[in-house]
Each structure stands twice: as C-alpha cells, then as structure tokens.
Amino acid sequence: MNAKYSLLKIFILAKRAEINLKRLFWGIVSLLTPIKKNRVVFCNFMNGYTCNLKYIAEELLKRENGLEICWINGYQAAKPEEFPAKIRVVDFADTRRARNLASSARILITNSCLTRLLKVGFVKKQRQTYINTWHGSLGIKKVNFASEVYKNDPEWLKFNLKDSANVDYAISNSGFETEIYRKERLYKKNILLFGHPRNDVFFKDSKIYANKIKTAQNIPENTKIILYAPSFRDNIRTNCYGLDYLRVIENLEKAFGEKYCFIVRFHPNMTGISSPALPESKSIINATLYPDIQELLAGVDVMVTDYSSCIFDFMLSQKPAFFYAEDIEKYDKERGFYFPMSDAPFPLAVTTDELIENMLNFDEKSYCEKIKAFFERQKVFEDGHASERTADFTEELVKK
Question: Which of 12, 46, 113, 299 has the smallest number of Cβ neighbours within 10 A?
C-alpha cells in the first residue's frame, strides 16, 4: 500500500514538473513575442460577443483609429455570425494562437481574468496595458477572494493573485464596486469610474431591443415578457430552480388582462450541465443561448432572479424586478452576501406564492424611490457614455 502511494506521489510530482517546465518554456516565448502597437485584444472566456467587451469593441470599430481589434473567445467555438467581420477571432481551445495573440497585444481587455492564459504560459510584459471591466456590478453575492469556495483552491489562488497584480486599470460604475475591487479583487492600481459599457443600452430606446427579441423568439407583439435569469451554484446543484412559471403567468394574466410569457436564461457556467427542465409551453422560452443578455435586459418588461448581479443592471430601466431565492439561507452559508438582500430595492420571495403576491402588489412609486436611494447609497455612476469613455481611454493608451 505504501509503495503504491509512493509511486503515485512520484507520478504526480513528475506531472507537475512537466507542466511547470512547459509553462516556463511558453513564458519565455511569450516574453520574446513582439508587441504590435495598434493591437487591442479582448479576452472573453465566458464565450461569445457579449458583455462590456462587445460595447467597447463596437465603439472602437466606429472610429477611424487604425486599431487592429482581436478577440480571444472561450473554450466553445466562436460563432462567426456573432462577430463583426473586422474583428479577428481566436478560440482559446487553440492555445498556441490564443497565447501568441495575447503576447503581441498592446492593450488587453477582459471582463473576467487572464488566469487561463497565465496557466498556459502567457506572461504580461511591462509595455502591455491590462484593463479589467469585470462582468458584474453592485452584485450582492461575494466574489473571488471574498468567497471561501475559491480560497480553498491553491491553484486558483495562485493564478488569481498573479492576475490581480497584473491589472493596470479597472472599470467601475460605483463607489461600492470600487471598494469591492480594492478589497476582493485586490486591484491596487487605477480604478476608473467610467460606468459599465454594457449598461449604455439602458439609455437607448428599449423598443429596439424588445422588437429584436420578439422577432428572434417568435413572441406576439402584444405580449409582456418576464425574464427569469437565475445564477449558478458553486456545487452545480440544480434543485433550487423550482419556480412555477405557468402559475405566475396565469395569475398575472388574470389580474392585469394582458398576455405574458417567460424567457428563461440560465447562467453560462451551467453550459454543458443538464439544466432544469422547463414546462412544455409556448409561453416559456429557453433563451440560455441568446447571444447577449444585455439585449434581453433592455428589451423585457419584468425581471426575476435569485442572486445574479444583472438585476442591478436591469434596475437602470426602472422596470419591475423581483428576487426569487428559495435557497437563500443555504446560499448565504455557501457563498455569502455583501449586504442583506432586503437592502436591495427588489421585493424578496422564497416561494412561487410569495413571488406572485409581490408582483400583484407591486408599488411603482415606492420601487423607484428605493432605486434612487440605493443609487445614492452605493454612489452609482451611469450615464450612457461608458463605451465612449473607455474607447477614448484605450486610444490614448495606444498613442502613448
């Protein structure tokens, strides 16, 4: 038994040594790769043409600035139709090309972190600038270094500490988020209060997005849309999504005399996992694969979530939003919250009956007052021009 254990330990150590040697080799290659001064590389390991990165890229593409815009997509193969023709796209599955592209960038922009690149030997050079926009805002659930779930993983901790040390600039939309960056993401350099580029959609005509959604999903024009966008669970459990969609629709239609439907959007982290089954109904649409959740947020009439930070984007629309969190106590123990859910402007329910009651008794005036107070308390800054500010700043960095 001891001999077998010793052999296994030797094998594990040998594999680690092999991985470290490979990482060292590719690190040298990364350092020797010339920087292309006009190359801006976006890294979206969450897959697709989405989030803050999409809206910054679109703003840069509008301008005659001579920049070469590139994109490192997540593990899943990129869909060419999602991306503008002017953007060069490389999938992270092609590790060598992805690493080489990042190593040649003058500017690197991500909405998450560069840990996947760091693990395969990417080394950030002094003349490269790394901008992090993150992918949440004003979120209630603890992230990264604040969560015990991640702290207990030495590999995760090692590369996330390295990533945080490499960040030159972080884009924030509030005093609250700025403090979270400093304490929980450990960003020690410049935090720019620009607002979030993806939230510029809420300062445009929402009918544009509503029409696009209804056309794509074959939803009748006179139908009200409820977006249900629950978060994932770190232990990948799926017994926490017990919302009774049909009963919600039945009650709302009876009370308000209008047609309703649900669009359901599960978290990207659940891709590849067996998502909870949805009832067979034309009124319930699985839009998990819809390319851009921000368009859904801008175009729907009502939103429901448990702990997803996208509800804090949605409230910029001042449309009705509700918490439905049936496992709130368990989730709080597992992940933890920055502040009680009751401090947010959204009515909280832990059962379908409570959610229906909250919807039927919704007070728009009180809700808008709570949103205003929340914005003031969290020192929120959003004005619809975050993409422009970030694009301006990127162009200035390139000129330097």
Answer: 12
Q: Produce one character per residue of 95-119: b if its CB has 16 or more CB atoms within 10 Å, e if not.
A: beebbbbbbbbbbbbbbbbbbbbbe
**Least confidently predicted of 12-16, 117-121, 195-199, 278-282:** 12-16
- Are 50 and 292 in contact, with CB atoms under 8 Å apart? yes
Burial 178-196 (b: 16+ CB within 10 A, else e): bebbeebbebeeebbbbbb
- pLDDT (average), residues 44-62: 93
Cα separation, 78 vs 85, in Å, equals 13
pLDDT digit string, tens, across residues 300-344? 999 999 988 899 999 999 999 999 999 888 888 877 888 888 899
State the pLDDT at residue 138. Answer: 73
Range of the domain at 106: 16-196+384-399
pLDDT by residue (tens digit) across 92-105? 999 999 999 999 99
Whether residue 150 is predicted with pLDDT greater than 70 in this model: the reply is no
Judgement on whether residues 112 and 209 belong to the same structural domain of the protein: no
For the full predicted model, state whether its pTM sits above 0.85: yes
Spatial distance between the Cα atoms of 234 and 149, rounded to a whole number of angstroms: 8
Check whether residue 271 and residue 219 sit in a common domain.
yes
| Cα 220 from Cα 288, distance rounded (Å) | 20
Spatial CB neighbours of 173, under 8 Å, sequence gap ≥ 6: 137, 138, 193, 194, 195, 196, 199, 380, 381, 382, 386
Here the CATH number for the domain that contains residue 154 is 3.40.50.11820
Report the CATH number at residue 327.
Answer: 3.40.50.12580
Q: Looking at the structure, tell me whether residues 185 and 283 fall in a common domain.
A: no
Could you tell me if residue 214 is inside a domain? Answer: yes
> Are 229 and 334 contained in the same domain?
yes
Neighbours of 15 (CB within 10 A): 10
Q: How far is CA 346 from CA 222, 242, 325, 362, in A?
A: 26, 19, 12, 10
Question: Is residue 183 located within the same domain as residue 238?
Answer: no
Q: Please enumerate, as own/partner, the contacts of 120-127 that have beta carbons within 8 Å and a separation of 24 or more.
A: 120/23, 120/26, 120/95, 121/22, 121/23, 121/24, 121/25, 121/26, 121/27, 121/29, 121/30, 122/26, 122/27, 122/30, 123/27, 123/30, 123/31, 124/166, 125/31, 125/35, 127/35
